[in-house]
Amino acid sequence: MSALVCGLDVHKDSTYATVLNHEGNVVNQTKMSNERVLSYLSHFKVSKVAMESSNQVASLYRQLTKEGYSVVVSHPKKTRYIAEAKIKSDRVDSKAIAELLRLNALPLAYMPDKETAMLREKVRRRAFLVRERVKLRVKIKSILTYEGIRWPSDYGLFTGKGVEWLHALNLDPVESYLRVLKTLDDEIKLLSKQLRGEAENEEDVKLLMTIPGIGYYSALLVKSEIGDINRFPFGERLCSYAGLVPSTHASGNSVRHGGITREGSRWLRWVMVEAAQTHVHKYDTAITRAYNRIAERKGKRVATVAAARRLLMVCYSVLRNKRPYHDQT
Question: How far apart are CA 65 and CA 114, in angstroms?
Fold first, then answer.
């Protein structure tokens, strides 16, 4: 087997490649179009390939793994830290990636399988559409405020009756936004129907839905962001992946803990905070009681984050043990 390794610095339209031998000597460095990468690797008979995680690498990653290459994807931020310490490079480029791969020192990023990636895209797409709908609703209210128009308080502005009232105003900008809102509503309804169907056929999702505060959509998002639960040896590692653990600053004998790291999956962090808010306001559980104690001492914001972390630990336990939720009183 070839001992050659290759680091790829992948961009939207081009890739810079560096091939190293087992001693770390440069065999070749070339910039090429993304379409030429496969033939380039085949020409040098490369055994291992590495590249930094980004939106651009997903398609290339799937293509190379399908062709039988041993491909790893690195964590960009951690790769830069290690490269600066080990290689003394001013920037992390294809050579640095290749060298870290050769030294077996590359911090790896998780690449979901095709099924998980498709689910992840779908639940994120729904979240994006819902957020865009909220922005449009805010825009319509801003227009009404600018025009000095008070909207009805006895029914919702964006209910069926409320939309009829908006149409009756005959305001061009409002009509324009309402047309876009109608399209968004239709797409969100279609996606929601599809996702409900998928939730009914996923055992892990049904287990997550036994947790108070987690519905079908939250469960699907958690499942798609986690992927295989077994890649996390314990629950705190999953909380770290969600960026829900406190940052730590150590100097000499002094150790200081700050706010949460906010690294890892922002989507998982977001949905756990949302689920935690529902959980503590609707259910009386051990998590809710802990939330109330923390809220009294440190405020609701800190308490909500703490509840989100505890709720994610519950998700870990449910998925790892394949057992429905039960309140630990």
Answer: 12
Q: Which of 324, 326, 290 lies closest to 309, judged by CA?
A: 290
In the block, residue with structure tokens 């070339």:
30
- Are the CB atoms for 103 and 246 separated by under 8 Å? no
Do 237 and 222 meet the contact criterion of CB atoms below 8 Å apart? no
* Single-letter code of the amino acid located at 170: N
* CB distance 5 to 15 below 8 Å: no
CB distance 244 to 260 below 8 Å: yes
Backbone angles phi, psi at 217, to 5 degrees: -70, -45
Q: Which residues contact 309 (CB under 8 A, 6 or more apart)?
A: 239, 244, 245, 272
Per-residue pLDDT of 164-220, as tens digits, reads 999 999 999 999 999 999 999 999 999 999 999 999 999 999 999 999 999 999 999
**Cα 246–chain centre separation:** 19
Contact predicate 159/210, CB 8 Å: no
Give yes or no for a contact between 205 and 119, defined as CB atoms under 8 angstroms apart: no
Q: Which residue has the tokens 């998982």?
A: 268
Nearest one of 311, 309, 322 to 282, comparing CA atoms: 311
Q: Reply yes or no on domain 5-102 having CATH 3.30.420.40.
A: yes
Beta carbons within 10 angstroms of residue 43's beta carbon: 11
Are 175 and 182 in contact by the 8 Å Cβ rule? The answer is no
Question: What backbone torsions phi and psi does residue 30 show, to the nearest 5 degrees?
Answer: -150, 140
Phi then psi for residue 147, to 5 deg, are: -80, -5
Q: What is the DSSP letter of 211?
A: S
pLDDT in tens, 44-65: 999 899 999 888 898 899 999 9
